[in-house]
Amino acid sequence: MSFGSLGLCAQLLKSVAEQGYVRPSPIQLEAIPVVLSQRDVVAVAHTGTGKTAGFTLPMVQLLSGGPCPQTHSVRALVITPTRELAAQVVLSVQNYSQHMNIRSAAVFGGVRIEPQIAQLESGLDVLVATPGRLIDLYNQGAINFEQLEILVLDEADRMLDLGFVDDIRHIQSLLPSKRQTLMFSATFSKEIKLLAKGMLNNPVLIEVTAANSTVDTVKQLIYPVDKARKSELLIHLIKSNHWHQVLVFTRTKVGADNMVTQLQNAGISAASIHANRTQHARTLALEGFRNGELTVLVATDIASRGIEVHQLPCVVNLDLPYVPEDYVHRIGRTGRAGTSGLAVSLFSEDEAKQLAAIERVIGGKFKREFIPGFVPTPKEKVTVDVSDDEEYGNFEPDPAPQGRRKSKGRGKRGGSSSSRSRNKGSRNK
Ligand code: AMP
Fold first, then answer.
1. Cβ contacts of residue 151 below 8 Å, gap of 6+?
2. 218-362 matches 3-207 in CATH topology
3. Cβ atoms 324, 361 nearer than 8 A
């Protein structure tokens, strides 16, 4: 089956060919015709399946036939849980719509709000936004939803994990009830079903992989090791295997920074990406990692959403996540779009519960492999410190407007940044 048979217009087929896509992925095959038919959709698809193009391509096609956005108006709204994902999605929108006259921008916290207000002034076809900043902008009168036709909730499961449910419901109350709604989620939990019930109208359910499944193209390995020797083992693995591009996950921000220091001391170039780093520092780190200047990027779970690295060969879990679904998201950064990937988890005895939970979600047991020289000493006594944990400690993912959502801690409030479509030609009919 080719893209040509899905009902996409010539401009989009041209963009798709320019991206080098030869045939649609399973989610694209199923979602594109349904979205084009203007039905609501709930799609269970994790990152790496091509879901972004699955909703973006038909969405821009539907928008291209309609009226221009009026002042402050937004015709399609894509809500994402994190800044990185918002930036990634708007880039896809701009790539796919480059031969069309579609105005798009992303808005999220952590950067100045004024440029975002200015961008919204002339109206947008597509706005990609994180919930807190979107509500801030609405409260300041910068956005008008009267022209809204399409709402997309991307990584809806993650938004629920991050406590955005009230924000999402509030945003829903501001939108016209006559609209098309698309919801994408990596998992299909009871909570997601409930959210979908309240927001979608007789949706088509699309499920391309079993809920919570991991990508077949990722080889998953568990290396048992003493907790205190994890960093040493990571350095050993990178050096002995000559890994040149490794995304490492830690549960805590301090853990991420410590790991970076140890890697650098061992002569391995590395940077971290987490909630305490500025947006600028996060962007620089990601760019350095993408272009090969950095061998290792160390990330916490929340910051990792939207980290998109073409053909990333290797992901390492320095700690296992508390939320088992995060494991699926983490390893989904490699083995994307049909390429093969390696996901290595360094497992210490204190993480037995997390490993069991992950194995339940995956639906199988991992084989443990021992690295000579790093075989763990039996019954190591360890204490678990969650004081700096991003999920459970002082992290607030993207600031909510003042007085609306209770802060979980000392998360930063911030300004804004966004991007605009490069195209200025006439609107395609
Ligand atoms: P996503 O799941 O949307 O994050 O996309 C994962 C990766 O797959 C991105 O790097 C896309 O550029 C790429 N991709 C999306 N659709 C296709 C396709 N049909 N063929 C090849 N690569 C694709």
1. 76, 77, 79, 172, 175, 179, 180, 181, 182, 199
2. yes
3. yes
What pLDDT does 203 receive?
Answer: 94
Q: Where are the domains of the chain?
A: 3-207, 218-362
Which is the CATH superfamily of the domain at 218-362? Answer: P-loop containing nucleotide triphosphate hydrolases (3.40.50.300)
What pLDDT band is residue 5 in, cutting at 50, 70 and 90? very high
Residues 238-290 have pLDDT tens digits of 999 999 999 999 988 899 999 999 999 999 999 998 878 888 888 889 889 98
Instruction: Please tell me the distance between residue 51's alpha carbon and the centre of ligand 1 in angstroms.
Output: 7
What digits encode the pLDDT tens for the residues 166-210? 999 999 999 999 999 999 998 888 889 999 999 999 999 998 754
Which H or E run includes 359? helix 352-362
Domain 3-207 sits in CATH at 3.40.50.300
Confidence of residue 377 (pLDDT cuts 50, 70, 90): confident
Residues within a 6 A CB radius of ligand 1: 21, 24-25, 28, 47-53, 308, 310, 336-337
Tell me which residue has its CA closest to atom 5 in ligand 1. Answer: 50
- Nearest-CA residue for atom 12 of ligand 1: 50
Q: Which of 44-48, 254-258, 345-349 has the lowest mean pLDDT?
A: 44-48
- The pLDDT assigned to 18 comes to 92
User: Rounded to the nearest whole angstrom, what is the distance from the C-alpha of residue 118 to the centroid of ligand 1?
Assistant: 32
Ligand 1 pocket test, pick from 5, 6, 16, 25 with the greatest ligand atom count within 8 Å of Cβ, gives: 25
Pocket test for ligand 1, best of 158, 308, 333 (most atoms within 8 A of CB): 308
